[in-house]
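Quick question, first post here. What does this chain look like in 3D?
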Amino acid sequence: MSAKLYDGLRLTAHAPDLFELTRVISKRMREVFRELAVPIIARNVTRVVDNAEVRESDMGGPLHNYLVYRARKLWLDEQAGLDDRMTFHDPLRFSIAFGQVDDDYGARRLAYPFAGNRAYTDALMALEADDRPFFVDYHYQNQADRPKEIRKDEWKRRRDDWNRLLDADDRETDGTLGHLPGWQLAGSIEGVFDAVLLGYKDTTIDLNAHCTIEHRMRRALNRAVTLDLDLDEVNGISRVLTRNRRIERAISQYLDTAGGKAMPRPAPLPGARELDVTISELPPVYEPPVEAVDRICDLYHEQALAGD
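> Answer (accepted):
Ran it through. Tokens below.
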């Protein structure tokens, strides 16, 4: 059986019992979740604010709910269009399964996290008491050679331990960890969007901190250059990535010139909690100078001709 348990962990003797450990994990993972969710919300709200169509929908009243609703819909539509094997429609998901193996060597408590972002696993590995970690690496996979730093007998023990937990010969478990006890992050990014939508006090977001003026300018340049180039549609992810890299490289080249450094930048945005203003009070939608877009297009074509 092919085994690829890259994120396998073992609980140390310093880890508390499962009930207390679950409480600690729950608190820390919710903190990580919010740390990951806030920038995503800020970027999507900013994308809506920077969209000229929003200005054409002025209803004369507060914008806060309208903008956050549009940002939430933008996020959900994008997730729905992605491969659910990669995202499960929520890249901020987290769950963890626990198991125990008892043999002549003693009892070993194992854990396996299922995370949509590496930040969750890093936070798990950082959990400790008196500078003593709760978790240590206990990964195993049989698709490559044993790591040099792991002894042969320990590598074999890891294999046997995970095989016992997976119980691959049992049709009911089907070689997965789903039959083991665990904990799952109940929240989703949709809930955080809703919290912002309702204006909860603990959801203050600094749009300019999470989506800088430089990022907004580059995004506007990329959009304008892509439209101006009017490129033919290409097939294949490799060609799409090559085209995108050339556009980004051309933008960077131009911004390093004297003209690029002197180019006007977008105006700062109000805070997400301060969007209860009319459209006329928002800064104007940023439009890159025509001469800047033309020069970036020239740089793109130079790269294409050189085959870069």
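The chain has a mean pLDDT of 82.
The chain has twelve helices and nine strands.
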